Amino acid sequence: MNSLWVLLWWVIIVVLGYWVYARHVAKNIFEIDEKRTTPAKMYMDGVDFMPANKNVLYGFQLNSIAGAAPIIGPIVALQWGWVPALLWLGLGVFFIGWLHDFSSAMVSIRNDGDTFGALGYKLISPRARKILLTFIYFYLLLIACAFGHIITSGISGNAALPFPLLVVIAVAFLVGHMIYKARVNIITTTIIAIAVIFFSIWLGTVWNIKLSYNLVLVCLLIFGYFSSILPVWRFIQPYNYSSVYVVYFGIIAGVIGILIGHKPMTLPAFTSWSIGMGPLWPLLFVTIACGAISGWHSLVSSTATSRQIENELDVRPVTGGAMFAEFTISIIAVIVCATAFADKAAYIAKVGNPVGIFVGGLGGAITSIGLPLSYAKALSGMMIIILALTVINLVFRFMKVATAELVGDAMSVAKNPHIATVVALIITFVLIKTGTWLYIWVLFGGANQLMASFALLLVTLFLVQKSKNYKIAIYPMFFMYATTVCALFYTSFFKLIPGALAGKKVFGNLFAAAVAILLIILAIILAYDGWKAFKKHKAGETAAPAEAEKVTA
Amino acid sequence: MNKLKFGWIKIIKGYLKGLFLYGLIDEVYAEKRCLDHLFLLGLFGKFIGFPYLFNYYHLRVMPYQIRRLNPWQRRILKERDFFDHIKD
């Protein structure tokens, strides 16, 4: 089948999802009111609460939610065939994905811009905030391990990447200094940065540097340490700014390449209901997280976006629109990979190194616009590694804060940023070195989707409290909850523990299984509290527990 | 026709600003917030026992800044947890 037919599926989902279903939900269920004052206007302080134009916010939201996961997930999930991957991507974003992002922002907006911690406290139970925080710590750990391996295997497996990556890091420091300290014009700074980065990618193709896996891993952890410790303006922000041009150039070049090349899909449409990783349900639904639905988006929607929305009418284009854009990125990933390999065996041989698969796929597509293959492959590799490093940039920073919040009161040493960061780095190092990446990716997807089901639980409780039709949120919530808990259960009890008992990667597999079991326990506790809160709200009792009322007062 | 054309340019400009520049702008606001905290603490700190450093200038500036007292108070007293740091 020609890959252009896949674009028809994309058009159907976007048109019906965004312009029909999303419009109906926004208008009839959330009763969007353009005259209602948003928290950004009501509490405008020029910092946290600040109204922003919807187009600006759309760009910001897309930049915040789109990482490497919408590309890696579909690449791994092609093992079941590209039809199941496309079906889940389309139906997931249609019924759950956009709704999750949109409603998370709406619930926060209707609750004075409260974050999930405060909302969980108010709508579920006082201990919900602590449970969410514990959950998020391990969720971040899984992110660090999953993306840590992707970066490490990607760089060590491609000798064209180390040099341009070192240049990107150096350019980030330079850009930070030029913008914030030397006050150089931003356009001049940008032109210099882009020229140096794109030239270094070419230089990398002629000046290959082969690095070992262990060396790259250590360098990555040092990178993580500095991105956690340094001020945001010094490194993270300039890095994101200067490197994002490579990513968007890669995406645009890839889309044009797909349209020009319109190659046939060479991988099988469907392989089997059950593969080495496990059965299609529940594992496919957690392997593809971002692109269909992702819990991370709810955190962005409820903390940043909800406090900057100028008008309730803007919520659908900003959150829903960005989600459909991320779905588009996943569709591109499916097409470039399903058209890149001659047969399934060639693809399966590379599945442990998704960067290699993506480089082969997107690199091939980019050559259609006239770039040499070596440059196109290096560009694709840089694109995916840059996206993954963007995630690593933030993960250790968040883990540092989460450590301080979780155990800071009991152990004051945990409040020390250096110690908290080093502890997070050591745990990550151990899990990457001793774990099995494919299963860690499943656990990361499971944790991510479980976060999404918690967000949908909050949305359900909000709709129940307001006597609105909560069925649009509760069914997706049940589906995501059951799927993710089953996926975590299956991976830990049928893959990780038996693997450890058979003597394969004993420590790493047991450690990963323990994390999965902990996440399941936390999910069960939260579900129990959620059920009690649901009954309370349904009966029309006061939403918040007594302690919460006191704190609010 | 012109209106439509410029409307599109405006949309694309806004979108690109959000995609590429908003993070940098946000960082400048964060820096401004730190300086604001210091400035307003110096100005209104007397209410919480922080001594005035320059009485004359305080009185000169106060009428122009008094409207900022409420938002500042709300921001300072707002409970911040882990989830608030995600934006940072």
Question: Could you characterize the architecture of this molecule?
Answer:
The complex is a heterodimer of chains A (553) and B (88). Chain A has 553 residues and is mainly alpha-helical. Chain A has 22 helices and 2 strands. Chain A has a two-stranded antiparallel sheet with strand order 1-2. Chain A starts with a helix and ends with a helix. Chain B has one domain. The longest helix of chain B has 43 residues. The termini of chain B are far apart. At the A-B interface, helix 3, helix 6, helix 7, helix 11 and helix 13 of A face helix 1, helix 3 and helix 4 of B.
Q: What is the residue-mean pLDDT of chain B, rounded to a whole number?
A: 81
Major sheet summary line of chain A: 2 strands, antiparallel
User: How many β-strand runs of chain A?
Assistant: 2
Give the N-to-C terminal Cα separation of chain B.
42 Å
Distance between the termini of chain A: 62 Å
Quickly describe the structure:
Chain A is mainly alpha-helical. Chain A is built from 22 helices and two strands. In chain A, helix 9 packs across helix 11.
Secondary structure layout plus pairing:
The complex is a heterodimer of chains A (553) and B (88).
Chain A: H1 4-29, H2 39-42, H3 54-65, H4 69-77, H5 82-110, H6 116-124, H7 128-156, H8 162-181, H9 186-206, H10 213-229, H11 236-261, E1 274-275, E2 278-279, H12 280-287, H13 295-303, H14 315-338, H15 344-348, H16 354-366, H17 373-407, H18 417-434, H19 437-465, H20 471-501, H21 506-538, H22 546-552
Antiparallel strand pairs in A: 1-2
Helix pairs in contact in A: 1-5, 1-14, 3-14, 4-14, 4-16, 5-13, 5-14, 5-19, 6-7, 6-19, 7-10, 7-17, 7-18, 7-19, 7-21, 8-9, 8-11, 9-11, 9-17, 10-17, 10-18, 11-14, 11-16, 11-17, 12-19, 12-20, 13-19, 14-16, 16-17, 17-18, 18-21, 19-20, 19-21, 20-21
Chain B: H1 2-44, H2 55-65, H3 69-77, H4 82-85
